[in-house]
Amino acid sequence: MKRHVAVIMSNFWPEPTGGSPTATEFAVFFQRAGVPVRVATSMPYYPQWEIWPEYRGALWRREFHEGVEINRSWHRVSPRVNTLMRMLQEATLSLFALPSFVRVLRGARKVYLFTPALSFAWVGSLWARLFRIPRVVVVKDVMPDAAIELGMLSNPFMIGLSRMMARSLYRHAEEIHTLGEGMRSRIARLCNDPTKIRLVPDTVDGSELYPVPLEDNAFRARFVPPGTFAVLHTGNMGKKQDLFLVLRAAALLRDDPGIHFYVFGDGAVKNAFLKERHRLGLDNVSHHPLQDRPMLKHMLSGADVVLVSQLREVVDIVVPSKLLTSMVSGAMIIAACPPDSEPHRILTESGGGVVIPAEDEEALVGAIRDIRAEKTDVEACRRAAREYALEHFDRDAVYGRLLAEYGVEAVPGSAGETVPT
Questions:
Q1: What is the per-residue pLDDT for 366?
Q2: Distance of CA 407 to CAs 196, 199, 249, Å?
Q3: pLDDT at residue 109 above 60?
Q4: Total of domains in the chain
Q5: CA distances from 230 to 23, 88, 258, 354 (A)
Q6: How far, in Å, CA of 97 to CA of 33, rounded?
Q7: Does the N-terminal peptide bond of residue 144 adopt cis geometry, omega within 30 degrees of 0?
Q8: Whole-angstrom Cα distance, residue 60 to residue 141?
Q9: Are 190 and 229 a contacting pair, CB within 8 Å?
Q10: Distance CA 326, CA 328 (A)
Q11: Is the pTM of this model over 0.85?
Q12: Are residues 385 and 398 in the same domain?
């Protein structure tokens, strides 16, 4: 029997946003290529911050997705998201996950420890050391830097403890994977050997996400009245995404009935977002639940503009996977981001969209008006975005290089079924 690899990640399928989709894609890719995968994770709770109803009432649960074995553990969680609740959630998950850690680590040839759940990855690393399993730390958000700079972690003791765990996690790992140069520089400050840090970007599957013609586009048919210019934001509604930029821009455009903002998602700031929308009386902003995955390509390619937004503080602590899915879907992207960020570099290098300063609603309004007035070559941007994404972030190519280390060759097209391009 082939020896498996272990994945320790606090978020996994079927959670639709955050780090779950990319961790799931990684595990499924390996499983399909013939490398068995076992996962230790939580009961699904994200982005609502409540354990999903169908998973309540159990301490542990084992299930399978696309052949991947998933071992789940109970944890304390509440929609009242604050620093204390986040700490309690990670602490209870790390405690109750002990049986899952043992199951996924026993006999594993390697373990991939995913952040941003720093304490969960750290405890998993300790158990991996006991089992003498080589450790690869996969950094999706640089923690605790992200939490500190976004104001989510301010207690000096907890900051010190978090930095200690990060330093230990990085120094004892045999290898570290992260998404961009800025993130690599951050990690190197706490790492004893920067040469073990490796850039492994998030990936896209061009056979799953691709442009859907307007005449066949379900998003346009279901949500967008004829003649409406649709500005879309979809995904996690967290602090990093700066969703209040949408409201400030919508307020400036409230007298233009032809432009409408569509926000699809859930998350920690959803209630505050909806309350502010009501306070401002913005009839030109609609909110809807997250849609099923097959709808995503319709939304991203069908919208007149897809907004990818970040706070000023989010420079080199995270790279939004939303940018890559938008690019491969052939979206017309406006990225509101800091000048030194990875989204700024990617869009500037690719010519696949319009970049504006972070948190600047007037610049966003100006970019929307330019696109609507056909002052921007929309078709060229859409085409360049997809071409760049397929060239640099194709799943077969990126993860194929990792598979080669196991003596397995990726089969072209194994990431999904063949569909029209």
A1: 98
A2: 21, 21, 52
A3: yes
A4: 2
A5: 30, 40, 9, 16
A6: 27
A7: yes
A8: 27
A9: no
A10: 6
A11: yes
A12: no
